[in-house]
Design brief:
This protein has seven helices and ten strands. Helix 1 packs antiparallel against helix 7 and helix 6 crosses helix 7. A hairpin with a 2-residue loop joins strand 8 and strand 9. The strands form three sheets. The chain has a five-stranded mixed β-sheet with strand order 7-6-10-8-9. Helices cover 29% and strands 22% of the residues. It has 279 residues and is of the alpha+beta class. It has three domains: 60 residues; 108 residues, Roll (Outer membrane lipoprotein wza fold like), CATH 3.10.560.10; 92 residues, wza like domain (wza like fold, 2-Layer Sandwich), CATH 3.30.1950.10.
Length: 279
């Protein structure tokens, strides 16, 4: 039996335990709050560059620093399929028209040069190769390459799930992905972020923990085109789904009422004790 003098302590504890606290897994990089210092930490460089893969669409524009080369470099740019102006004779420099699809062999067909292997190159690498080839035709060739049709797919508990383009981005990290998707929601499980990757026709997967700063030294810190990132619901969200939002609201309401009643009883008992001791 609980003695009367111990009742205030009992009800005070009941009040405290009825209050909810914010779980640690709501906090990103919580180890930094505990005193860890990242000074001098080297970010894992794996996959920090974007490489051309099969299925990419490349937008390639050729120009020159020498105005006298204008007629020469036009032959390396593609004509629009359906010109808006039928009288148009000059080759368009609009990026929309300068697209080359990377085929199943990792090749594109470029004017004058024919089939070219581009798979595995970065956009800087392809620019350098084309500029080298073009020097036999013009004095100061300038080439700009943009990689498109490469995406990271983000699913689950983020503000805006969807496809997010990687294109030419260097150092495009898992943090950048979530920033683009509006961040992980409060119902997302930050300790178990699933990443699924295809590499040379083979699938691999890993689970990332964003509540610790170890993510910066992970080989999966930088994402690759066609990665799939999935944020599962956390325990609270799963419980809501299990019992239903109405049940969760009732449980929360009951917990609040119990806490309030416990507090009132504690105050009454304390007041009674003080009055009895003053007699």
């Amino acid at each position: 039996m609980i003695k009367l003098k111990h009742l205030p302590v009992f009800f005070l504890m009941a009040l405290l335990f009825s209050c909810k606290s914010v779980p640690d897994d709501y906090i990103l990089f919580k180890d930094l709050n505990n005193g860890r210092n990242l000074n001098g930490t080297v970010i894992n460089p794996t996959n920090d560059s974007v490489f051309i893969v099969q299925g990419n669409v490349l937008r390639i524009i050729v120009s020159s620093e020498n105005i006298l080369d204008s007629k020469t470099f036009e032959q390396f740019n593609l004509l629009p399929v359906t010109p808006i102006d039928p009288a148009l004779t000059r080759i368009s420099n609009d990026m929309e028209f300068q697209t080359f699809s990377v085929d199943g062999n990792g090749e594109i067909e470029f004017p004058k040069f024919g089939k070219m292997k581009v798979q595995g190159l970065t956009h800087f690498g392809l620019e350098a190769i084309l500029q080298g080839k073009l020097k036999q035709y013009m004095s100061n060739p300038v080439v700009r390459v943009n990689i498109s049709q490469n995406w990271v797919k983000v699913l689950g508990e983020v503000a805006v799930p969807g496809l997010y383009p990687v294109e030419n981005r260097y150092h495009y990290s898992i943090i950048d992905v979530f920033a683009a998707a509006g961040g992980i929601t409060t119902t997302g499980d930050k300790k178990h972020i699933k990443l699924i990757r295809e590499d040379n026709g083979k699938l691999e997967s890993t689970v990332l923990d964003l509540t610790t700063s170890d993510i910066f030294t992970s080989p999966y810190y930088y994402v690759k085109p066609n990665d799939i990132v999935v944020v599962d619901p956390n325990a609270t969200r799963r419980k809501d789904a299990q019992y239903g939002s109405a049940d969760s609201f009732r449980l929360s309401a009951i917990s609040s009422i119990v806490g309030t009643i416990s507090g009132v009883i504690t105050i009454v008992i304390l007041a009674t004790q003080i009055r009895n001791n003053s007699k």
